[in-house]
Amino acid sequence: QPQLVESGGGLVQPGGSLRRSCAASGFTFGLNHYAIGWFRQAPGKEREGVSGSSRNGGTTNYADSVKGRFTISRDRSTVYLQMNNLRPEDPGIYSCAVARSSYRGSSQSSYQYWGQGTQVTVSP
Q: What is the CA radius of gyration of the chain?
């Protein structure tokens, strides 16, 4: 059974950095064979796409609010989200996701596998 387990959330000061990790297990192929994504849900808001990447990284997208600050990457078994220059508007529950099907950007319904979600807090 495919599974995603996240780590790396926590508290950081404005302007600081965090690296989120999402360890994959039980998948038939390495993560280069799947579309990957990161989503976040801020308090009182719906979950939104932060970043996503197609198989083999041919296409990568970022939400306008994080462009130039966040970077999505992967190796064979882990998805990463490097978050730099964190701002007060970045907090929320961040979740990784993996899709068997074609990459469809921030379409949440296209992702079949989800991490448990972990909190990121930005505070002085």
A: 13
